[in-house]
């Protein structure tokens, strides 16, 4: 790929995806981009039925302490805790710093850490730009005032989450956070088991 193509490929597109990779795209359709995205170094799967079976097998090892009714109650509680929204979830982790989460093999979230040097928003590098400038430009472009809590900045209407760029002070004020462990994630729908945004404050960028 030439420089222009790489610039286009590594553009963060809120609610849409990453360059040509669209949210809700099938996992198989992303494979042609493996060379650019980097080698997959780890994969994980979350499957409710498998977790139930693993739990059942564990309980069987201690069968003298449990009866069938105990097991049923425990599995029902497991289902309620996990919920169907976390069933059939898989993750791929790449050496480029890009991770992707899938539900039933459809892309639902993209995550990037500071190894993704080429990642940018409208030409503004995500990880090497001054954080206030970056977040201000995102806010202007999306026409949305972000929220902050601790070290997380959120654009809730665009399901965009920045971690460790700024750290919360009183009344929506902030300080620059450490450059270590910065990351960003984006999706096209609310996070599963999303936190209560009532605990967040509008970020004062003026």
H/E series, N to C? HEEEHHEHHEEEEEHEEEEEEE
Q: Which architecture of the largest domain per CATH?
A: Sandwich
- Name the helicity range: 25-40%
The termini sit apart by 40 Å
Structural domain count: 2
Radius of gyration: 20 Å
Task: Report the mean per-residue pLDDT as an integer.
Answer: 86
Give the helix tally: 6
Strand order of the largest sheet: 4-5-6-7-15-12-11-10-16
Main sheet makeup: 9 strands, antiparallel
List segments where confidence is low: pLDDT < 50 over at least 5 consecutive residues.
none
What characteristic shape results from the CA principal axes? globular
CATH topology of the largest domain: protein yfey like fold
- Total E-strand runs: 16
CATH class of the largest domain: Mainly Beta
Strand content: 25-35%
Structural class: alpha+beta
Ordered list of secondary-structure elements with their pairings:
Layout: H1 3-9, E1 12-13, E2 17-18, E3 21-22, H2 27-30, H3 34-37, E4 40-46, H4 48-60, H5 68-82, E5 89-94, E6 98-103, E7 106-113, E8 120-121, E9 124-125, H6 131-142, E10 147-149, E11 152-155, E12 160-163, E13 166-168, E14 174-176, E15 183-187, E16 201-202
Antiparallel strand pairs: 1-2, 2-3, 4-5, 5-6, 6-7, 7-15, 8-9, 10-11, 10-16, 11-12, 12-15, 13-14
Helix pairs in contact: 4-5
What do you see in this structure?
Helix 4 packs antiparallel against helix 5. This protein folds into two domains: 3-44 and 88-202, protein yfey like fold (Sandwich), CATH 2.60.460; 48-85, no CATH class. It is built from six helices and 16 strands. 27% of the residues lie in helices and 30% in strands. It has a nine-stranded antiparallel beta sheet. It has a three-stranded antiparallel beta sheet with strand order 1-2-3, with no helix packed on it. It has a two-stranded antiparallel sheet with strand order 8-9. The protein has helices at 3-9, 27-30, 34-37, 48-60, 68-82, 131-142, and strands at residues 12-13, 17-18, 21-22, 40-46, 89-94, 98-103, 106-113, 120-121, 124-125, 147-149, 152-155, 160-163, 166-168, 174-176, 183-187, 201-202. The longest helix has 15 residues, at 68-82. It has 206 residues and is α+β, with helices and mostly antiparallel strands.
